[in-house]
From TrEMBL, chain A:
Designated name of the protein: Phenylacetate-CoA oxygenase subunit PaaJ
Organism: Dactylosporangium salmoneum
Gene name per UniProt: paaJ
PANTHER family linked: 1,2-PHENYLACETYL-COA EPOXIDASE, SUBUNIT D-RELATED, FE-S PROTEIN MATURATION AUXILIARY FACTOR YITW
Annotated MIP18 family-like domain residues: 8-71
Signal peptide: none
NCBIfam families: PA_CoA_Oxy4 (TIGR02159)
UniProtKB/TrEMBL annotation, chain B:
Species annotation: Dactylosporangium salmoneum
One Pfam family hit: PaaA_PaaC
InterPro entries (alphabetical): Aromatic_CoA_ox/epox, Ferritin-like, Ferritin-like_SF, PaaA_PaaC, PaaC
Record SUPFAM superfamilies: Ferritin-like
Name of the protein in its database record: Phenylacetate-CoA oxygenase subunit PaaC
Taxonomic classification: Bacteria, Bacillati, Actinomycetota, Actinomycetes, Micromonosporales
Length: 152, 235
């Protein structure tokens, strides 16, 4: 496998159903003179998963025979939930996590569909969830609580 | 010290000390959701602080990294505004502090992201989205509690009155022009929350020059004790 394919398959440590590529945090994989330089970007400034992601990238490359690895962090352009791929969104929904609505500059409340029953009759329980990137919601139709990757 | 190092330190120290104060609510907030919210906001502040202090250390060129700056400086070397170091008080004080601070941070970051310093612009472009979210959260609580019960209104007004003097310091040294947009946004929230905007008068300052309240000394004692007791220790 190419270095690019190995890195692209690394799973996000907190959203274990999507890869870092599907989540949109993989910026680039550059292979030059036997050295692989991977560039990633954080979802949130203080995302505590970054160290785990760096370690997972290094381990995946090591398993594929790439020993000389550097993982760099880039901040600009800032990550947006709009970078989550269509496949990533489908996988999140299938795992019971509502994918984010398009990130808009205007502050407006968009209906979030329940990832379990599909009803748009949902309510926000808390603007913050178990990780920085998620909020807590509840479905009024099937009564199930669920998480949402909040638009950023 | 160049002006730039000082400016980056001010922003980094505001974020670091705010993170430490907010994290004191962890396991003590009035409800589970708010406990998670304040811890999340603290984490965002810490993330911004790490990026800013790392950059400040590089600009300074004396080989100090983020940990050296966070854990091995004395109170007189910190450049945070007094507002962020003040004790948490009750939940009303914490929320009003967060409102005042996060609206200010959003305006500062918004300006920096379009600035010439590309490194700072990158940090600010990330942090501005987070500050926007913090300000929205603080505004929701301010309205809910200010326009809530008699007791919650009383506590919110007391918090606004007590903290208002400390907001002046935010707008000194390059950020003067931000007071007007800050006032416009904060006044709108206070108005909706049926809270009175206090008169401008006493304007304590000193934080940007390293002259702090005793609240910072106590905060640093707790924040730094482990690192100082076990220098260089790693997990």
């Amino acid at each position: 496998m190419s270095a690019r394919d190995l890195v692209a398959a690394v799973l996000d440590p907190e959203l274990r159903v999507v890869t870092i590529e599907e989540l949109g945090i993989l910026r680039g994989v550059d292979e030059r003179d036997g050295r692989v330089t991977v560039t990633i970007t954080p979802t949130y400034s203080g995302c505590p998963a970054m160290d785990a992601i760096r370690a997972d990238i290094a381990a995946a490359l090591d398993a594929g025979g790439f020993r000389d690895v550097a993982v760099e962090t880039a901040l600009a352009q800032p990550w947006s939930t709009d970078w989550i791929t269509a496949e990533g969104r489908e996988k999140l929904a299938a795992a019971g996590i509502a994918p984010p609505a398009p990130a808009t500059k205007v502050s407006l409340t968009l209906s979030v569909r329940c990832p379990r029953c599909g009803s748009p009759d949902t309510e926000e329980l808390s603007r913050f969830g178990a990780t920085a990137c998620k909020a807590l919601w509840r479905c009024r139709a099937c009564r199930e609580p669920f998480e949402q990757v909040k638009p950023l | 010290m160049t002006a730039t190092v000082g400016r980056v330190l001010e922003l980094g120290d505001d974020a670091l000390i705010a993170a430490q104060r907010l994290s004191e609510w962890c396991s003590r907030a009035p409800e589970m959701e708010e406990d998670i919210a304040l811890a999340n906001i603290a984490l965002d502040q810490l993330g911004a602080a790490r990026l800013l202090l790392t950059y400040a250390g590089e600009l300074e060129g004396r080989g100090r990294d983020e940990d050296d700056l966070a854990y091995l400086r004395e109170d007189r070397e910190f450049r945070n505004a007094l507002l962020v170091e003040l004790d948490n008080g009750d939940f009303a004080v914490t929320i009003v502090k967060l409102l005042f601070l996060s609206v200010f941070q959003r305006l500062v970051y918004d300006r920096l992201r379009a600035g010439d310093d590309r490194r700072l612009a990158g940090i600010a472009a990330k942090a501005v989205k987070e500050s926007t979210y913090h300000a929205e959260h603080a505004a929701l609580w301010t309205v809910r509690l200010g326009d809530g019960t008699e007791e919650s209104h009383r506590r919110m007004q007391a918090a606004v009155d007590a903290l208002w003097p400390y907001t002046h310091e935010l707008f000194a040294g390059g950020t003067e022009g931000l007071r007007e947009p800050w006032l416009a946004e904060v006044a709108k929230v206070l108005d909706e929350a049926t809270l009175d905007r206090p008169a401008d008068g006493w304007a304590p300052s000193g934080g940007r020059n390293g002259v702090h309240t005793e609240a910072l000394s106590k905060l640093l004692a707790e924040m730094q004790v482990l690192h100082r007791a076990h220098p260089g220790a790693t997990w």
